[in-house]
Amino acid sequence: MAEKLEFKLEFEVFQQEELNAQDLGLLKKAREATNTSYAPYSGFNVGAALLLEDGTIISGSNQENAAYPSGMCAERTALFFAGANYMGKKILSIAIAARHSDSSLYMNVAPCGSCRQAMLEYENLQNLPVRILMQNADNKIFISPSVENILPIKFTSINLQR
Ligand code: THU
């Protein structure tokens, strides 16, 4: 009989009214960032906002391209900006929101696999969990306590060691 491994993912689910002021502020920045999205091909506007340890908030949005794979997700736009301009500053939380271009209603959103991988790199580097706040439809907000929680079978620098 093959051994069976099970992984448990943990989320907290909040109504918007239940969020603390800092989390709500960050989520609002992610929502605002959907307005700076350049998404003429998918029509799916995504915004991300990062909270750094010194209180700085960095926003990003998805930036698409006529050569489709050359575009970039909102999360990595914000993450790489933080890496390039705030090196060494820890990232406490990342909020994500998305809507269709022709609507003000927010849709369910969760970071894609490539963004999870990029987030994991920084989480490991800073040795501190990065919380992920995901805006869902129905005004619910899902909070993951870390990146690892949503990428449990992971590839990291440890895998590169001989
Ligand atoms: N997208 C993001 O920016 N973040 C996500 O978490 C999911 C997908 C973007 C990529 C592309 O511009 C559009 O949404 C449709 O996939």
Structure description:
The chain is an alpha+beta fold and 162 residues long. It has 3 helices and 6 strands; from the N terminus they run βαββαβαββ. It has helices at 21-33, 74-85, 113-126; strands at 12-15, 44-52, 57-61, 91-100, 131-135, 140-144. A 6-stranded mixed beta sheet has the order 1-6-5-4-2-3. A hairpin with a 4-residue loop joins strand 2 and strand 3 (57-61). Helix 2 runs parallel beside helix 3. The longest helix has 14 residues, at 113-126. It is globular. The model has no long low-confidence stretch (mean pLDDT 97). Tetrahydrodeoxyuridine binds next to strand 2 and helix 2.
Based on the structure, what is the oligomeric state of the protein chains? single chain
Ranges with pLDDT <50 over ≥5 residues? none
Q: How many strands, what sense, and barrel or not for the largest sheet?
A: 6 strands, mixed
Mean pLDDT comes to 97
Number of strands: 6
Number of separate helices: 3
Q: What share of residues are in beta strands?
A: 15-25%
Which small-molecule ligands are present, each listed once? tetrahydrodeoxyuridine
Q: How much helix is in the residues?
A: 10-25%
Structural class: alpha+beta
Strand order of the biggest β-sheet:
1-6-5-4-2-3
How many angstroms does the end-to-end distance come to?
31 Å
Q: What is the chain-wise order of helices and strands?
A: EHEEHEHEE
The gyration radius over C-alpha positions equals 16 Å
**Approximate shape:** globular
